[in-house]
């Protein structure tokens, strides 16, 4: 009986660790996707793209990194993005913001 209880506790703790790891990994993926998307969009803006084209490129880069672009705004050559990533075993989405462009 004690062995069954120990196995149950180990399984519950292991499952909890997997759930937390899922959230942590999604957070890292969201930060990476936001940074890369912002850099891609700001690079396009620097090369003369308007806000629509720069944000479309940022959206494509975010999607390539398994993220969803929530917001995108361009001021001059500076691009601000917010992306989300849905963790596998966590109910809330991971959100990350990033800004790229020349210093003001």
TrEMBL record:
Top-rank taxon: Bacteria
InterPro entries associated with the record: Rv3654c-like
NCBIfam families on file: tadE_like_DECH (TIGR03816)
Name this protein carries in UniProt: Secretion/DNA translocation related TadE-like protein
């Amino acid at each position: 009986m004690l062995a069954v209880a120990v196995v149950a506790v180990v399984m519950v703790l292991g499952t909890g660790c997997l759930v937390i790891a899922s959230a942590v990994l999604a957070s890292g993926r969201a930060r990476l996707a936001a940074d890369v998307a912002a850099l891609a969009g700001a690079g396009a803006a620097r090369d003369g793209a308007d806000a629509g084209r720069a944000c479309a490129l940022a959206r494509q880069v975010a999607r390539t990194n398994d993220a969803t672009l929530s917001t995108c705004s361009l001021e001059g050559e500076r691009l601000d993005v917010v992306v989300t990533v849905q963790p596998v075993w966590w109910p809330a989405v991971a959100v990350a913001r990033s800004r790229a462009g020349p210093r003001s």
